[in-house]
Specification:
Blueprint: H1 2-17, E1 21-29, E2 37-46, E3 52-58, E4 62-73, E5 76-81, E6 85-87, E7 92-95, E8 101-107, E9 116-123, E10 128-136, E11 145-146, E12 152-153
Parallel strand pairs: 1-10
Antiparallel strand pairs: 1-2, 2-7, 2-8, 3-6, 3-9, 4-5, 4-8, 9-10, 11-12
């Protein structure tokens, strides 16, 4: 009986040690056939009082998944790999086109609209989230955003 109580206590403590990260509206970008890379986007919400970071990701549809951001350098938008995406306690972080995102590099298959792919997110507290995410048109997930020609794209 003592072992059972110890086991239940250990499981309860280890479960509470994990931050509570909620993943909303995840999707991957559809790409033309033969395109070697894509990206995944979503909103991450840390519902705990503890800071946690997204430290890696993986998907069976890509050789590598990396965490990336965009930076502005001398008037040129550049994408670069980052080691983690930090979520402060009770903070929400949006992974979106032109900002933070998960790069899917070396695609093993075409990513076409309305497919579903797997994506696993790994966090600094040892927790992970296995997702099945929808593939959407390049512009579908971008919402109302300024386009290159100055016109706004309106989405339903």
């Amino acid at each position: 009986m003592k072992k059972l109580i110890t086991l239940v206590a250990a499981l309860t403590l280890s479960a509470s040690a994990f931050a509570e990260v909620k993943v909303d509206h995840p999707y991957a970008r559809a790409v033309p056939p033969g395109q070697p890379n894509s990206a995944a986007f979503m909103t991450l919400t840390n519902n705990s009082d503890t800071e946690v970071s997204l430290v890696s990701a993986s998907s069976s549809v890509a050789k590598v998944a990396e965490l990336h951001t965009h930076t502005q350098e001398n008037g040129v938008m550049k994408m670069r790999r980052i080691p983690e995406i930090t979520l402060q306690a009770n903070e929400q972080v949006e992974l979106k086109p032109g900002g933070l995102h998960v790069m899917l590099i070396g695609l093993k298959q075409n990513l076409a609209k309305d497919q579903t792919i797997d994506l696993t997110l790994n966090f600094s507290d040892g927790s992970s989230e296995k997702l099945d995410i929808k593939v959407m048109d390049v512009m579908s997930g971008m919402g109302n955003m300024q386009m290159h020609n100055g016109m706004k794209k309106q989405t339903p």
